[in-house]
Amino acid sequence: MRILLVDDEQELVSTLAERLSMRGIEADWVGSADEALKQVETQQYDLAVLDVKMPKMGGIRLKQILDDKYPDMKFIFLTGHGSESDFQQGTSEFGVTDYLVKPVKIEVLIEKIKAAVGK
Fold first, then answer.
1. Average pLDDT over residues 2-22
2. Strand 2-6, strand 47-51: pairing
3. Fewer CB within 10 Å, N- or C-terminus of the chain?
4. Which of 97, 90, 42, 91 is nearest to 70 (CA)?
5. Over the stretch 33-46, which tens digit does the pLDDT of each residue have?
6. Which of 22, 10, 6 is CA-nearest to residue 78?
């Protein structure tokens, strides 16, 4: 299983990638949607963990683009903004069903990853 972490908080995303790797999950990370689009051209991913709010392009728009190119890719979203009901109202129309609120507990993220990819 290989996952891509996309978040503009580089310290957070690099730490998550390191902690996932220590637990046997191959994880690459990038700091923007643009970098993610370049990264998926060179590497195949089973799942992407996307930050909802990033400069230029957020995670929801990035998911729409990736869905078109890679229909088998699964997604988990990270958010540090707003309430659960606000998040669900704003994202349900885009097929966003799985998300975590920052700060992320690594054990919870691993459970979500495994559930999303069916392992």
1. 96
2. parallel
3. C
4. 42
5. 999 999 999 999 99
6. 6
